[in-house]
Amino acid sequence: MSYTEIVSEALELPLSDRLQIVNELVESFNPMKPDVEEKWEEELMERHRLFESGKIQTVSYEEVFGEG
After folding, report:
1. DSSP assignment letter at 31
2. pTM of this structure
3. What does the domain layout of the chain look like in residue ranges?
4. Element spanning 6, H or E
5. What is the pLDDT along the chain (68 residues), one digit of tens a residue?
């Protein structure tokens, strides 16, 4: 299968599938060590739990970078 065929077929996939492909390609350049990946997943789950419970809030791009 040629590069053009792969890209053409990939562009027909749903957004979530395309994002997963992009993520896997990016990770292939610098694979994360399994123990580090596990710790990041734990951290992300904890942040999500705190956000969902209302204990933390998001900060907008404009607030972080002083734009707007």
Report:
1. P
2. 0.50
3. 1-30, 32-68
4. helix 3-11
5. 999 999 999 999 999 999 999 999 998 998 888 899 899 999 999 999 999 999 999 999 999 998 75
